[in-house]
Amino acid sequence: MNNMRFPSQQIGEFSITAISDGYLCASLDLLSNIDPIEATRLQQEAGVNEPSSIHINCYLVRGRGHTALIDAGAGGFKQWGGKLKANLALAGVQPAEIDTILLTHAHPDHVGGLIDASGESAFPDAELVIHPREVSFWEDDGNLSRASERARGNFLFARKVFDKYRDRLRTFAENEVLPGISAVPLPGHTAGHSGYRLESENRSLLVWGDIVHFPQIQIARPDVSIAFDQDPLLCAATRLKLLDVVSSDNLLIAGMHLSELGFAHIKRTGKAFEMSYET
C-alpha cells in the first residue's frame, strides 16, 4: 500500500486508512454568517487552490475481526467523487471484503458509492449501519413532499440505497456499533448525523462526519454553516462544542471533508481554533 497516497493511523488494534473518493464543488455563496469574499480569502491564505472545492474522504477500518468502511463517498452522483472503488483496490481491498459500512448520514456524497453503475449494491456482503433517525427522516413521505427540488433527489437516492441494503440494514442507539467503535451523536447537519469513536489500547480517534465542509473556514469560524445543514444553528453549536472537546482532549480527528491527508488535531489559542494535519 502506498502510504503517501493513503494516510493511515494505528489506534491500538485498529488500522484506519483515509481513502479519497475525489472532490465535489460547492459555491461559497452556500455559506452563512460569512461574506463569500472573506471565505475565499481564508481559503487562499490556507493554500487552497480551488476555493469552492470540497474533498470527500472515506475511512477504511481494519481490526478486531472486521474490515469496515466509514461512509462510501459520492460514487459519481452528480459527477462528484467516484474514486473510492479504484482507491480501495490500490489499497489492496476488494468490495466483497468489506463486512460493515458505518454511515455518518445519508447525504449523496456519503452513500453514492454504495450503489454501483448497474444500480446494485456495490458492497455485496456488507452490513449497513446507521442511526434510526436518519432512516426515518429520509423515508418520511411528509419530509419528501416538503423538500425542495434539489433535496427531493437526495431523498429518492437515500431511499434507493436503503432498499438495496434492506436485508442487512442495522440501526443503532448511542452505543457500541462494533467492538471498540462507538457512535457519537453530532446533531444539526441531518436528523441522525453521527460520528464514530474508535478506542483501543489507550488510544482514541473520532471520525466526525460533516462537522465541517470547508475546514479552513469553519474551524476558524465555527459560526459559519452551509446550506446542506438541516439545522444551521444547532450545527454551529455542535461544531463549537466539539472543537472545544477535541482540542482540550488533544483527540485525533478524521472527517469526510478534510483534505486527502485525512487526520488532524485541533489546537485552541484563546477563543480561536486552528487545525493541523497529521503527516
Name some characteristics of this structure.
seven-stranded mixed beta sheet; single chain; Metallo-beta-lactamase, Chain A; 29% strand; globular
Structure, briefly:
The chain has 279 residues and is an alpha+beta fold. 25% of the residues lie in helices and 29% in strands.
Description:
With 279 residues, the protein is an alpha+beta fold. 46% of the residues are buried. A hairpin with a 2-residue loop joins strand 4 and strand 5 (66-70). The mean pLDDT is 95. It contains eight helices and 16 strands. It has one domain (8-277): 4-Layer Sandwich (Metallo-beta-lactamase, Chain A). It has helices at residues 36-45, 84-90, 108-111, 132-138, 141-146, 149-164, 215-218, 232-248; strands at residues 8-11, 14-25, 31-32, 53-63, 66-70, 100-102, 127-130, 169-171, 176-178, 181-185, 194-200, 203-207, 225-226, 252-254, 263-269, 272-277.
Task: Give the SSE layout.
Layout: E1 8-11, E2 14-25, E3 31-32, H1 36-45, E4 53-63, E5 66-70, H2 84-90, E6 100-102, H3 108-111, E7 127-130, H4 132-138, H5 141-146, H6 149-164, E8 169-171, E9 176-178, E10 181-185, E11 194-200, E12 203-207, H7 215-218, E13 225-226, H8 232-248, E14 252-254, E15 263-269, E16 272-277
Parallel strand pairs: 5-6, 6-7, 7-8, 12-14
Antiparallel strand pairs: 1-2, 2-4, 3-13, 4-5, 9-10, 10-11, 11-12, 14-15, 15-16
What is the CATH T-level topology? Metallo-beta-lactamase, Chain A
What CATH architecture do you see?
4-Layer Sandwich
**β content, as a range?**
25-35%
Average of per-residue pLDDT values: 95
Strand tally, please? 16
Any low-confidence stretches, pLDDT <50, length ≥5? none
Q: Separation of termini? A: 16 Å
Please outline the major beta sheet. 7 strands, mixed
Order of helices and strands: EEEHEEHEHEHHHEEEEEHEHEEE
User: How many distinct helices?
Assistant: 8
Structural class: alpha+beta
Shape: globular
Q: What is the percent of helical residues?
A: 25-40%
CATH superfamily name? Ribonuclease Z/Hydroxyacylglutathione hydrolase-like
Number of domains: 1
Provide the gyration radius in Å: 17 Å
* Strand order of the biggest β-sheet: 1-2-4-5-6-7-8
- Which CATH class is shown? Alpha Beta
